[in-house]
Design brief:
Distance between the termini of chain A: 58 Å
CATH topology of the largest domain in chain B: MetI-like fold
Mean pLDDT of chain A: 90
Helix content of chain B: over 70%
Oligomer: heterodimer
Radius of gyration of chain B: 26 Å
CATH superfamily of the largest domain in chain B: MetI-like
Helix content of chain A: 40-55%
Mean pLDDT of chain B: 88
Shape of chain B: flat
Strand order of the largest sheet of chain A: 2-1-3-14-6
Largest sheet of chain A: 5 strands, mixed
Largest sheet of chain B: none
CATH architecture of the largest domain in chain B: Orthogonal Bundle
Largest interface: A-B, 65 and 53 residues
Low-confidence stretches of chain A: 1-40
Low-confidence stretches of chain B: none
Radius of gyration of chain A: 24 Å
């Protein structure tokens, strides 16, 4: 048989595989824009909406269902699906569904998926939709940057947030800070007067004086996530050059960033072997005021209030001891920063969903992008709003946390919309872990990361 | 003379028919396995080889990918992570096999077949618990066993451990233990069954001959376990080469525990910010398939598989 039969079998299998995958084309597929508005508007349309969200973020999925009642140009029924599988599984599910033509009509995901999913032809250009409905004019202008790729807009923001450095006012007072000094901390961080080094020194003093337990001076996020890029940015690191559509790695910033990660351990303000700690342990510890400084996100406030300190008084308890400010800069005199990670609704293409209801989806998203619907999500889940008029909405402005952290959006930055950002981030994070655990020195870890980045990304990377 | 010649021809023809008939019967018996292997190993392998020669990723989708030949393989051979990951994988497979999936399995099987039958059965049933516990729950139990004080069980009762999360201190200890406790139960059942099926006459004869326990194990039991040993070693090697879910849940490959299969999974299906690189992940998987196939061949030669599957000598007589 053998050799000949084997060759034939291999050939058949390759042909079957190739047929199953479809034919490759060099060009990105032309995006489908809806054209049959009149026809669609006369017949009932059922739209599927997928959103990754925990229970307190349910409006991500339920918001469009609620908004469907206000849609007048289509007879809409919305089938919302709230998914709690976790982002990696959720995105995997969507991409596989899109390739099978089984994707929902509207999908919510992080803005970083815009470039990847647009390039793959899963989602359609949103520019036409944006121009069609006045509701979109209310979106905070800078947020459109997060959904822009290749000169086009590919979705509409659903929420955004700030990732403050929280601080324990009670512990600072025990350390000898006056009320005035504590109240002035956010401003000092905003102007670059209080830096990451000052934060380390304060936390170390708190440990030495027994105000907090050893290792409880500063807690960053315990698992992989975008938050760490705030330290990279704090030391002047750059991520992306939109003109060349290339990712950037700034070596000096990476070295300083990794050195910071190691220093917080060697100074005894963060525990040894901290990365990998269960998130539930982290939430429980910080929300009960056991840590002096910690880096989190505004949305976690609602989670802590509902799931960790409900019996102690929820948000009132948190306000009794927790303060919030920008993430301090690593460079004296440079303003603090915060990372925003807007989640965005995207309309899927006909190839991805098998439906021609993109016009109806556009209409639905217009009615979803209103203060009436979005403020419910913002307040319940403590996410920042996306609309200019929300600041005047009493339901929003009466929320103390949201109104007091809104200014942070003036100091925010986004992760880049680049198709290779996923591998780029993974490499930086993997080496961060090695630096923080002392497996490599900050310089060694930075060089290892840059070497891997060059191998993986090739000419889409700029090393500076 | 003519009669003899005719008889020889007839005999030769009968032999041929018998051989064809025998081969055909064997084929029909094997056909379910052949169909399964072709459907679930051969065809997927060919598809993955095809995928590995593309730049297919989330960013290209199934519509915009391009054939790139052996580029992904070139990338693997020049990748700084290739050799460290390969060495980690060899260590992971060899250590788990030696200490747990074969070693500990054999020890448990020997112990539980040398105690009262009911006690042995209960002991083996307890060892099955890790296998029947859902992986996520099983690994969460381990994570909280090793967690930092005051949450971790070990740190609670052994303060001299330092109070910190213990997994990064000894990641391989936890990886091997978590995998080994599950893996040992498989070999334990196979070996225990095989030991139970050794004719009692052999055992009694060895006692009469004055064998001590070690001699009985070495000269009676182990030779009878050659086939189960081949099966468990081969099966568990291939299984460990491609298994990663426990490492994934326990460390996610951090602290130097990223094995080859997990590397492939991360690149193909679990990138934190999206853009799964199916083409490159498939190339990594193909390397694993080749290594697995080679390992199987080596094992079969080492254990003289052909001798094991020869027709019993009784038929020749």
């Amino acid at each position: 048989m053998p050799a000949k039969v084997l060759r034939i079998l291999v050939l058949i299998a390759i042909v079957v595989a190739a047929a199953g995958c479809g034919s490759p084309t060099a060009e990105v597929q032309e995006q489908t824009q809806p054209t049959q508005v009149e026809q669609a508007s006369t017949s009932p349309v059922t739209l599927q909406v997928w959103a990754e969200a925990n229970a307190v973020e349910h409006w991500r999925a339920d918001g469009p269902a609620e908004a469907a009642k206000n849609v007048t140009d289509f007879k809409l029924t919305v089938e919302p699906l709230r998914d709690e599988a976790g982002w990696a599984d959720y995105k995997k599910k969507f991409t596989l569904a899109a390739d099978a033509g089984e994707a929902p009509d509207v999908v919510l995901s992080g803005h970083e998926d815009v470039s990847v999913w647009a390039n793959a032809g899963y989602v359609v250009d949103f520019s036409t939709c944006r121009d069609k409905y006045p509701e979109f004019d209310d979106v905070i202008e800078s947020l459109w940057t997060s959904v822009t790729w290749n000169g086009k807009i590919w979705g509409v923001p659903q929420d955004t947030e700030a990732r403050p450095m929280f601080y324990n006012k009670t512990k600072l007072k025990e350390l000898g800070w006056s009320d005035e000094e504590i109240a002035a901390l956010p401003e000092k961080i905003k102007t670059g007067e209080f830096t990451l080094d000052d934060m380390i020194a304060t936390a170390k003093e708190a440990v030495e004086k027994g105000v907090v337990q050893p290792g409880y001076g500063y807690w960053h996020r315990p698992t992989k996530g975008g938050d760490y890029l705030q330290y990279y940015a704090a030391y002047g690191g750059r991520l992306y050059d939109p003109e060349q559509d290339k990712l950037i790695v700034t070596r000096s910033a990476v070295v300083n960033w990794y050195a910071f990660q190691r220093k917080i351990v060697t100074e005894g303000i963060t525990p040894e072997n901290y990365i990998g700690t269960e998130f539930s342990i982290w939430h429980d510890t910080v929300s009960h005021g056991n840590v002096l400084f910690w880096n989190g996100g505004v949305w976690q406030w609602a989670d802590w209030a509902a799931n960790y300190v409900k019996d102690e008084g929820g948000q009132d308890y948190l306000f009794s001891f927790a303060g919030y400010a920008l993430q301090p800069s690593g460079i004296s005199g440079k303003p603090g920063v915060t990372l925003s990670h807007p989640l965005v609704y995207m309309i899927t293409s006909e190839e991805a969903s098998g439906d021609k209801d993109q016009d109806a989806a556009c209409s639905l998203l217009a009615k979803t992008t209103t203060s009436e619907v979005n403020t419910k999500h913002a307040v319940e889940s403590t996410h920042l709003g996306i609309l200019t008029t929300q600041a005047d909405d009493p339901n929003y402005s009466n929320d103390r946390l949201l109104s007091e952290t809104l200014y942070m959006l003036d100091y925010n930055f986004y992760q880049p919309n680049h198709t290779m950002y996923g591998p780029y981030y993974d490499i930086l994070f993997d080496n961060l872990v090695k630096a923080e655990n002392g497996e490599l020195t900050p310089e060694e870890a930075a060089d290892a990361a840059i070497q891997l980045l060059q191998t993986e990304l090739g000419d889409v990377l700029i090393v500076e | 003379m003519a009669v003899t010649s005719a008889t020889t021809r007839a005999s030769s023809k009968d032999g041929l028919i018998r051989k064809i008939s025998s081969a055909s019967t064997g084929f029909w018996f094997m056909s379910p396995s052949i169909i399964l292997v072709v459907l679930f190993f051969f065809i997927p392998s060919v598809i993955i080889i095809g995928l590995s020669m593309t730049n297919l990723s989330t960013a290209t989708g199934f519509r915009n990918y391009e054939w790139i030949g052996l580029e992904n393989y070139q990338k693997i051979f020049t990748h700084p992570d290739t050799i460290p990951t390969a060495l980690r994988t060899i260590f992971y497979v060899a250590a788990t096999l030696a200490f747990f999936n074969v070693g500990l399995a054999l020890v448990i099987a020997l112990l539980t077949t040398h105690v009262p039958r009911r006690a042995g059965f209960i002991f083996r049933a307890i060892w099955l618990l890790p296998r029947i516990t859902p992986s996520v729950i099983y690994l969460m139990m381990w994570k909280f066993t090793a967690a930092a004080s005051p949450y971790g069980i070990l740190n609670r009762y052994f303060p001299f451990l330092g109070g910190q999360n213990l997994i990064p201190d000894a990641p391989w200890v936890f990886v091997l233990l978590t995998n080994g406790f599950v893996g040992a139960s498989f070999g334990m059942i196979i070996f225990a069954s095989a030991i139970e099926s050794i004719p009692k006459d052999y055992m009694n004869a060895s006692l009469v001959d004055g064998c001590n326990a070690w001699q009985r194990i070495r000269y009676v039991i182990l030779p009878a376990l050659r086939w189960p040993l081949l099966f468990v070693t081969t099966y568990q090697t291939l299984s460990l080469l491609t298994s990663f879910e426990q490492i994934f849940i326990l460390t996610d490959g951090q602290f130097g525990t990223e094995v080859w299969a997990l590397w492939s999974y991360h690149r193909a299906l679990s990138n934190y910010w999206g853009n799964f690189q199916w083409g490159f992940g498939a190339a990594l998987a193909v390397v694993l398939v080749i290594i697995g196939a080679l390992a199987a061949i080596v094992y079969m030669r080492f254990f003289r598989f052909n001798e094991l599957v020869q027709e019993p000598g009784i038929d020749v007589l």
